[in-house]
Amino acid sequence: MKLFDFWKKKPQNLTEDEFKELVDGLVMAQMPGHGDWRDAKMEADAHNEVCEKKLRSAGKQAIPYLMKSIHLSAGVKLLAEMEALNTETILKHVTEDSIYGIMIYLRKNGKDLGSKEKIIPLYRQQLEENLRYRTEAVLGLAAYGAPDAEGELLKLLEDILSNVKDENGEQELGYTEKKVIAETASVLGEMKVKGALGPLKALVENEKLFSSLFPSAQVRIKRAIKQIEEKG
Q: Per-residue pLDDT tens for 178-198?
């Protein structure tokens, strides 16, 4: 069923499959697009907005389906709105499937919810996972002011820059790596981590690699260098 067909039906008339399709639609804005990434992101955001509005209008009827898809950060956000979830109740929903969305939600919203001593260990548990999970864990540690956040951020950045190779042995960054570099650079700049200056400057000087980054990432990296240098 096409998305816009959902608007013809009232929320109470949606079938189970239609609810599932709406919930699945929430993930689109979090996925890398194909072709021109700006167009893909705009399309995904529009899709996400349609799904979110429809689910919000369905109210508590949508909760059982959101519970099954709590691995989506957008799903956690809607659940928090509908059920007034706090850190305690959100942490009760932590499973292998839900952890990623919950980490994102808590990083963005959890600082107002308290329970810092329970949230930091949650992030530390994901430091050995794949790049997406590890990145979210490191950003979470930084957001909550964990003492090991600075070291983990530097290690993450250095691991990416030293390990990403194409079949010819040259450095080549995928979508996820580009996104991670931009995010970690921004946080390192905000934290004014002196140890990040060398790796970030080396990245800028590597014209081929640096030019392959998104324009917004290039701006964030240069800004981070300036922030660190200003600290002296």
A: 999 999 999 999 999 999 999
